[in-house]
Design goal:
Chains A, B: One of its GO terms (molecular function) is magnesium ion binding. Two copies of one chain form a homodimer. With 347 residues, chain A is an alpha/beta fold. The first copy, chain A, is built from eleven helices and twelve strands. In chain A, strands 2-1-3-12-11-4-5-10-8-9 form a ten-stranded mixed beta sheet, with helices on both faces. A two-stranded antiparallel ribbon of chain A has the order 6-7. In chain A, helix 1 crosses helix 9. The complex binds 3-isopropylmalic acid (2 copies). One 3-isopropylmalic acid (IPM) sits at the interface of chains A and B.
Chain lengths: 347, 347
């Protein structure tokens, strides 16, 4: 645990700045006074791109490296061509800082609405690979815009990349009471990548005889997410399947207003980055309707990563308590929710 | 409309033969006596592979071409290495017969259980591309099984392939009352394939000014499937996203026991193939627990494709009526359900 936290903040686009403000408020409130919090805000996202054409200049990337961690709000705006900010900023950060564990816990809190009848008991965590797979940006198009166009997307998978994230997932499963790990892939169709994943999990599993290991095709996994989500404990999966599954996971556990994530480099070689799963939601930006809880829970993941276990737990307890008292009929503003959570953790 | 139907039947593995038997029973019952039904059964699947090592010999493929349509039960067995039958038989058929429209309607029938609270009004159809994308089998691995392994999967997308399925989807949307088409992709990450899809939809949309066109990232689409499925009418999407979304669609509309599909070659150059969305479910094979309704509804799609609109409607009405009377507490066998549906369509 550091004697202080040197945090990079990337508020980003849309509701990003609003939710990040509340995340920082709660972070400041929960930290003991002897822990010094320093923050540096980075102006990255749509408005920077419009102004300068830059997404993430190398100099900024260098400066970001010096921080203990990064808190990011949301990236993306309809005025920017699709992919420019996602590839040039968000994914660039995940790749440059080797965030190979994209950690996305899902828990259905009491009193939280779920679209599922019968309110199943949901408490699992998705360990999504963050630096490989279909996300590598390897592909292209030729005869673009003509009737003879061909466009490719290449999923790159390495034993190195798969094994390290699989090991991380086994460690997380070992630390949880249910001790269950489910690999999700599509190895009956994507046979080469699929077999690499399956063989890696089978091999590492021999070192963890206490952990029950399961395999599901991604299509079948979506079925179980809505019919039997209690069967999941730790899920390990590739970058794209993890993207899809974690949005669905968010939907069944109260919506993306609550879903937190960490882009983690477990080696500590680069700062890890914490962000809500939701996007920039430009349609509600500035209205005070955004729920900052996902960002606040991302701050808890950040604290856990930096070794502040007690503070992380205080935030999670505060969220649980706050959610227990929420009344869907009387929605609160972004700021009101942030204030309430800050007050709870300060106690 | 042909004066007879020359049908190829591939019962396949697991529950495949059981559900196909009921599908054929209903087909025989619904056809007017002047329509001659000829069937030829093809022994393809796990047991053939175990016996001969063959998945789909060229001679069988040639023979299959002569039929008006194909009815398939299910392919896949745990005793066969993952991918062998899927790639060597099921996908080989879809690719060889250029089944570029993989049609998967989803409707929540009255009295049918859904995991979703509030029983939303679900009635949409997914037009899944069937011959391109990540399913082409273009990829490989090197240094396989070593710590230096690299495995790739290449998604191939062509203007030719995308445009023809997009046009088919627009035609289907034009024929439906809601007149809405949603493209699902991930064009903020898979930018090359994504832009080809998006640009194609935008261009074709200009020919259909009455159709409301929408775009969703695949991750966001899974959210709306469980929170707001009534927003969908026709969905057009790539092969892999379509695979994932249609299992989720099946889950929210009563389960894969009800989900039908058609692998359609709209040009008629090759026979189209109809199959339930579910797999071979080896765990319940032989127990009489399999629900043949998905196969029966696939027979309805088959009839519609061959021009027997009235007969298709009779089957769909029979299923609706049968489902309305089902009582979850007293489950019926595969055969009992088939008998009940056959009796209803014969009336
Ligand atoms: C914005 C997008 C690039 C991103 C992703 O696909 O990873 C988002 O959906 C997420 O899940 O964090
Ligand atoms: C069995 C498998 C190859 C197949 C697919 O992925 O298309 C199945 O899941 C389906 O949806 O028909």
């Amino acid at each position: 645990m550091a004697s202080g936290i040197n945090l990079a903040v990337i508020p980003g686009d849309g509701i990003g700045p609003e939710v990040v403000a509340e995340g920082l408020k709660v972070l400041a409130a929960v930290l003991p006074s002897e822990v010094k919090l320093e923050t540096a805000t980075y102006d990255l996202g749509a408005s920077r791109w419009h102004r300068t054409g830059e997404t993430l200049p190398e100099a900024e990337l260098e400066r970001l490296k010096a921080h203990d961690a990064i808190l990011l709000g949301a990236i993306g705006d309809p005025t920017v061509p699709s992919g420019v900010l996602e590839r040039g900023l968000l994914l660039k950060l995940r790749f440059a800082f080797d965030h190979y564990v994209n950690l996305r816990p899902s828990r259905l809190f009491p009193n939280t609405p779920t679209p599922l009848a019968g309110r199943p008991d949901i408490d699992f965590v998705v360990v999504r690979e963050g630096t490989e797979g279909p996300y590598v940006g390897n592909g292209g198009s030729m005869r673009t815009g003509t009737p003879a166009e061909v466009a490719t997307e290449v999923s790159l998978n390495t034993a190195f990349g798969v094994e390290r994230v699989v090991r991380d997932a086994f460690e997380r499963a070992a630390a949880r009471p249910a001790k269950k790990l489910t690999l999700v892939h599509k190895n009956n169709v994507l046979v080469h990548a699929g077999h690499l994943w399956k063989n890696t999990v089978d091999r590492v599993a021999r070192e963890y005889p206490d952990i029950v290991v399961d395999y599901l095709h991604v299509d079948a996994a979506t079925i179980f997410f809505v019919t039997q989500p209690e069967r999941f404990d730790v899920i390990v999966t590739d970058n794209l399947f993890g993207d899809i599954l974690t949005d669905l996971a968010a939907a069944i556990t109260g919506g993306i207003g609550l879903a937190a994530s960490g882009n983690i480099n477990p080696t500590g070689a680069f700062p890890s980055m914490f962000e809500p799963v939701h996007g920039s939601a430009p349609d509600i930006a500035g209205t005070g309707k955004a729920d900052p809880t996902a960002t606040v829970l991302s701050v808890a993941l950040l604290l856990r990563h930096l070794g502040y276990q007690a503070e992380a737990a205080r935030i999670e307890d505060a969220v649980t308590a706050d959610l227990a008292e929420r009344d869907a009929a009387t929605p609160r503003t972004t700021e009101t929710i942030g204030d309430a959570l800050a007050a709870r953790v300060a106690n």
